[in-house]
Amino acid sequence: MIKVGIYGASGYTGQELLRLLIRHPQVEIAAITSRQNKGLPLTRVFPGFQGLTDLTFADYEPGQMAGLCDIVFLALPHSVSMQAAPLFLGAGKKIIDLSADFRLRDIKTYEKWYGKHSAPEILKEAVYGIPELYRGAIATSNFVANPGCYPTSAILGLAPLLKNRLIDHRSIIIDSKSGVSGAGREPQTGTLFCEVMEGFKAYNVGRHRHTPEMEQELSLLAGEEVTISFTPHLLPVSRGILSTIYAGLTKDTSTVELLRIYSDFYDREIFITIYEEGVLPNISAVRGTNSCHLGLVVDDRTKRIVIVSAIDNLVKGAAGQAIQNMNLLCGFAEETGLNMMPLFP
Amino acid sequence: MIKVGIYGASGYTGQELLRLLIRHPQVEIAAITSRQNKGLPLTRVFPGFQGLTDLTFADYEPGQMAGLCDIVFLALPHSVSMQAAPLFLGAGKKIIDLSADFRLRDIKTYEKWYGKHSAPEILKEAVYGIPELYRGAIATSNFVANPGCYPTSAILGLAPLLKNRLIDHRSIIIDSKSGVSGAGREPQTGTLFCEVMEGFKAYNVGRHRHTPEMEQELSLLAGEEVTISFTPHLLPVSRGILSTIYAGLTKDTSTVELLRIYSDFYDREIFITIYEEGVLPNISAVRGTNSCHLGLVVDDRTKRIVIVSAIDNLVKGAAGQAIQNMNLLCGFAEETGLNMMPLFP
Amino acid sequence: MIKVGIYGASGYTGQELLRLLIRHPQVEIAAITSRQNKGLPLTRVFPGFQGLTDLTFADYEPGQMAGLCDIVFLALPHSVSMQAAPLFLGAGKKIIDLSADFRLRDIKTYEKWYGKHSAPEILKEAVYGIPELYRGAIATSNFVANPGCYPTSAILGLAPLLKNRLIDHRSIIIDSKSGVSGAGREPQTGTLFCEVMEGFKAYNVGRHRHTPEMEQELSLLAGEEVTISFTPHLLPVSRGILSTIYAGLTKDTSTVELLRIYSDFYDREIFITIYEEGVLPNISAVRGTNSCHLGLVVDDRTKRIVIVSAIDNLVKGAAGQAIQNMNLLCGFAEETGLNMMPLFP
Amino acid sequence: MIKVGIYGASGYTGQELLRLLIRHPQVEIAAITSRQNKGLPLTRVFPGFQGLTDLTFADYEPGQMAGLCDIVFLALPHSVSMQAAPLFLGAGKKIIDLSADFRLRDIKTYEKWYGKHSAPEILKEAVYGIPELYRGAIATSNFVANPGCYPTSAILGLAPLLKNRLIDHRSIIIDSKSGVSGAGREPQTGTLFCEVMEGFKAYNVGRHRHTPEMEQELSLLAGEEVTISFTPHLLPVSRGILSTIYAGLTKDTSTVELLRIYSDFYDREIFITIYEEGVLPNISAVRGTNSCHLGLVVDDRTKRIVIVSAIDNLVKGAAGQAIQNMNLLCGFAEETGLNMMPLFP
Predict the structure, then answer these.
(1) In this complex, do B229 and C306 lie within 8 Å of one another by their Cβ atoms?
(2) Which of A42, A224, A279, B61 makes an SS bond possible with A55, Cβ 3.0 to 4.6 Å?
(3) Buried b / exposed e along A162-196 (16+ C-beta atoms within 10 A)
(4) How far is B21 from chain A (nearest CA, A)?
(5) Domain extents for chain C?
């Protein structure tokens, strides 16, 4: 049993970590923090935990937290994580940071898209946490930068193509649609029920902060610099991201042939499911799970491929992938505590 | 490991049984049937099972099914279950029937509300499957009539009051609201997305077939004949039943005192959670779980009690309670395979 | 053409007044105020008005506002309205107040449920604005207290029974379900999309502030003091209130007979629709309209009547009824500007 | 007053025609047909019309229908319209066909995507009914092929660019998301509430039947043959289409410059709204209206333009545009009966 702490546990990502960690067989939750809910029982903030736990929010300083835990999840906003991370690392603790603060390897890129970085010296210690791509590096690390939700869906959807040089990397368009939980639990007009229900919109077109994160990873996969078009949209659902990805093919091929390449690439990956020809993913099939479902169509008329990638933004896009990374960091079987069935309907 | 079969597995109740049984540690799913999906893989009908199972629908006659299974779940419409049940019982198999066919102990009541019964001779063998009330009888039985979703929410909400003779049993009003999955997966105009979304209505007022089932059980609890007002409504959600129950109090009491009585009544019941004063259940706190959440308010102005009871209609209201009953029938720990966390948001 | 002002126009009620008044043939919108959106075009706050108006929010003091308008709608929170109302009345303007500040005729009741009242001297000048009950008084008044949304649905549903002394007034139970827009547009955790979607709950059981408003009006109709049980619930829809109302009948009668009494009572009321036997209202049938749809069932088993009353909380429950009152105050045909068709699906 | 008939009036498009035509000041609805609802009052099928009309469904043969009406709307499935249209034309009536049967000018293309055409001889008489592009031809015609919902959103979004040769026409990608009402009111598993709610998926990728319709019209605008990528998705909303359209720019330009070109192109078009820089459409801003809202972003990093086009699929995408066409055919002011305000929230 390892002792786990969650820093910033009162948001949707925090509660999702709790949902999964409470049932994790090798974990004891030692501390959860929330400045604004200090002293309150978890069940007061998330009534669904009634009867399942008697955890209470504290407002520990990093020093106290480090004394209580072997591993700390940082479920904090960007620019806040970077203040806490060095303290935990310095105390010899393992960290999984769910913010954007340590995902970009180039400090200039970070500062261009997010603002000043206060801990650049530890940036190179962080491993980008997509286990399907960086399993070995994660397993030998102490510090994981857990990927963004949009990037997870897009990178997993494009990796087999870029690695195999099957698409023109200048032609990539990523049209993504996300559920509202991705916007967090802070009250704001734009995420009120009445604003979102029966609505649908694009936002931050051409300038969403997940763009450089995707480009960094897609470039590494391609072996050359990749620039993408990325358009996020707000779906009137609570959970789920579906990315529809377009790219021009560099050679003649077929849906079936590419599906075989995907299946080979993700062979034995327990959290990746490749659909057969003629079937495409729906976010409802991954709700509550750590799975990424991938389907694709080769369009002979336009010589383009269309890839559809579906994840649950709170699980594979955040808390679930974080626990998958924790399992690697701690030497547990990678799927421990992550064998949830999808909730449908 | 026992061998389990599901008869009529292509509806929402069937898929929910599968969601839970696939992860049940003492169960092997030996057969699933669906006349219309015969020969199709389960994943074609419910894509969420991709990568989790390779079960295929068959169209076994009861005789074949009995040869394959130790216990059979009947997820069939009423009047169809009554044809299959005698064959399985005769073959020495255990049955959990999720239809209404064996819930009413009085054949006349059944025939008044549902129509002709073709197997009245086995009616008395069936035990009404609310474990919190009939645990002993269920454990020694072979044949469980799994309760209706509305009755489960109402009976659990009223049992402590009736047992303790705290309310005027002529004053009971049950105002229930159910998610759409309760109406099943057969295509019909009334359950289309566009008909339900942004809508809300009452239906079958004063004549819903769950009325006699509630009255039977509430009368047994009260020790005298109870007649209720019951109004079901259709909520624009997929899962969940919330029943708001009104009754006149027969003596002066308080919210706190009654909450204590509820806590005592359901002491050590793992699937029942009693809320503290000032907090009331939301169906979102039980989504995907086998729990029943209960809260209540004593209204001094009117001398009435208002009880709020929340369940997931597909779990505690159907498949989950069925598995709870299976665990009892088979001598497993009652909560085996049922420790799901609620999915929120 | 009269000149109209809306005080507090940036909430859902304010925008609904605008939606209806922009198309009203005898109205010119002279001013709209919003402290926080001062100077912004209306279209920036409500993009749906793009191309339909070039109104801009101002932050007028009441004195300025009175100089610009013949009639003022107060779409303000309670306790704020009471500060503005005397100034407009003193300036000889007509007022329609959509807050609760002038609905209760007894100052003690107001102060018990809401807190200190700063303008009790003008309380008796306000007319309670349900035109179907107080048409004459409204038409000769300058000052309308526009009813609450829940009370509108309940009072219209019960008036024919109480006037005709057909129910035991101690037996009234009002179980209401409201869409989220009733909670306003101020950001708060409880009305975020993720909190409400796929959820349903009761709130403020036995202590909602609309209770005394209902009791005041129901008592006037009954000719004796009425005490009710009232339970509001939060529906995962944007618009609509459905009230399911229970009462014990004082004499033998039938659904058909009572429907006839309702039809007589509301004869020639253009905004009231009485359903025929066997059909009950759905909030989706009144979405966007000023109609109240009423259906009922006599339950012979329990000697109770169940009335179902459906309105759009933002229209008949707020802005639409306010304009109906304005039409009366100004001598326009009562339905002017209110002939909207329901939006379905 | 002209006499109007609706053939196939029991679907969502039919009811939307009724919603708008009942309030149209120059129209009398002479007949509505529905085979399966023959003899039923409209209010039984669509309760929202209670109190607004006493229309009843008939099952008239085309000959009878022609005798009753001056103009007929065909709200029929494709391949059924083509049987009825020649009879109405032959009887000297005006027709607005909402099916796909007369939209494609090339019979071979029709038969490749839809199947055998039984009335090719009248194909050339039909005018494609986007008034913003073909106003003159429509006004002098008797026979309008009303456009598909997806094509309306895409063609309006791309017309200014293609006419001005600003994009590489081989680079066009149209990623569209539609509400469920587009799938019609026939009960089917895929459009049940529980299947759609909290879900999102792509479908018919690369092979949706609206593709050739878009290509026909985009080619006419471009003056050369255009081949597109088109991906439709199913949104969990009742109404609305949002198309996110990508294309490579052929010259350096800016968001502001292109917005000016759009504003010029659609100058004085009452149903087209061009958004200013930094603001993008949401389907909730056009709900219930005949408007098309357009916004765009030039992405300097990729030299692509992203256009966002929002319509209500049942109004500008079907019934509203049909009435706009009727107004032109009949010489009424084009906006008659179409000045609806958007319903929000």
Answers:
(1) yes
(2) A42
(3) beeebbebebbbbbbbbbbbbbebeeeeebbbbbb
(4) 11
(5) 2-125, 149-313
Identify the H or E element spanning A86. helix A81-90
Are the C-beta atoms of D240 and D153 separated by less than 8 Å? no
Cα D245 from Cα D227, distance rounded (Å): 14
Joined tokens for residue C210: 């609309």
Please answer whether residues B284 and C199 qualify as being in contact, where contact means their C-beta atoms are separated by less than 8 angstroms.
Answer: yes
Interchain contact, D306 vs A202, CB within 8 Å: yes
Chain D contact partners (≥3 CB pairs within 8 A): A, B, C
Chain B residue closest to C241 (CA)? B200
Q: Which residue of D has its CA nearest to A301?
A: D227
Residue B238 to residue D197, Cβ atoms within 8 A: yes
Is the ipTM value over 0.90, yes or no? yes
Cβ atoms of C291 and C306 within 8 Å: the answer is no
Nearest C-alpha neighbor of B326 from the set B57, B65, B85, B5: B5
Give the Cα separation of A241 and B172 in Å (integer). 45
d(CA B264, CA B259): 9
Domain A149-313 grouped into CATH 3.30.360.10? yes
Neighbour subunits, B (≥3 Cβ pairs < 8 A): A, C, D
**Predicted confidence pLDDT, tens digits, chain B (345 residues):** 999 999 999 999 999 999 999 999 999 999 999 999 999 999 999 999 998 999 999 999 999 999 999 999 999 999 999 999 999 999 999 999 999 999 999 999 999 999 999 999 999 999 999 999 999 999 999 999 999 999 999 999 999 999 999 999 999 999 999 999 999 999 999 999 999 999 999 999 999 999 999 999 999 999 999 999 999 999 999 999 999 999 999 999 999 999 999 999 999 999 999 999 999 999 999 999 999 999 999 999 999 999 999 999 999 999 999 999 999 999 999 999 999 999 999
B182: which chain A residues are within 8 Å (Cβ-Cβ)?
none
Instruction: Please state, in angstroms and rounded to a whole number, the distance separating the CA atoms of residues D97 and D118.
Output: 15
- Catalytic residue numbers of C read 149
Separation CA A35–CA A292 (nearest Å): 33
Task: Kindly state the tokens that stand for C106.
Answer: 């007894």
Give the fold, CATH level 3, of B2-125: Rossmann fold (3.40.50)
Predicted structure pTM score = 0.97
| d(C-alpha C332, C-alpha B230), whole Å | 44
> How does DSSP assign A255-323, residue by residue?
HHHHHHHHHHHTTT-TTEEEPPTT---BGGGSTTSS-EEEEEEEETTTTEEEEEEEE-TTIIIIIHHHH
- Judging contacts by C-beta atoms under 8 Å, the chain D residues touching residue B198 are 238
Which pair of tokens denotes residue D35? Answer: 């085979």
Q: What contacts C113, CB < 8 A, 6 or more positions away?
A: C104, C209, C211, C212
- Residue to substitute from D109, D176, D200, D306, interface A, most A β-carbons within 10 A: D200
Cβ distance A291 to A271 under 8 Å? Answer: yes
In whole angstroms, what is the distance from residue C175 CA to residue C76 CA?
Answer: 27
Nearest residue to C273 (alpha-carbon basis) of C253, C258, C290, C249 = C290
A48 interaction partners in chain C (CB closer than 8 Å)? none
Token pair of A227 as six digits: 């620039």
Provide φ and ψ at D308, rounded to 5°.
-115, 125
Answer yes or no: A69 catalytic.
no
The token duo for B279 is 């907090």
From D12, D52, D342, residue closest to C341, measured CB to CB:
D52
